[in-house]
From TrEMBL:
Protein name, entry field: Pyrimidine/purine nucleoside phosphorylase
An example Gene Ontology CC term for this record: cytosol
Species of origin: Seonamhaeicola marinus
Keywords in alphabetical order: Glycosyltransferase, Transferase
Pfam families in the record: Ppnp
Gene3D superfamilies associated with the record: Jelly Rolls (2.60.120.10)
Record flagged with keyword Glycosyltransferase: yes
Single Gene Ontology MF annotation: purine-nucleoside phosphorylase activity
InterPro entries noted in UniProt: Ppnp, RmlC-like_jellyroll, RmlC_Cupin_sf
Lineage: Bacteria, Pseudomonadati, Bacteroidota, Flavobacteriia, Flavobacteriales
SUPFAM superfamilies the UniProt entry points to: RmlC-like cupins
Amino acid sequence: MIKVNEYFDGKVKSLGLSNSQGNFTAGVLLKGEYEFSTSSKEWMTLTSGKWEIELPNADKKPFDIFESCEIPSGITFKVYALEDSSYLCKYV
């Protein structure tokens, strides 16, 4: 079954899928600043656009296309979408 997620008044949307390789979402973000919380460890991979990610107690870091960021479980972090962007997340 495909799970549909929508956040921030529709500015962030994703489709979720679970299979033998794990749990995943593929999504899009409109240009803007977003704060997310994690309940499990995840890897976010930028697939198009430009963004910076700010983890707790760290500076904002830009990511290149197809570069991944490891996000620890149980934190709140920020994503700064510098333009409309797309991503893939893998959850552990």
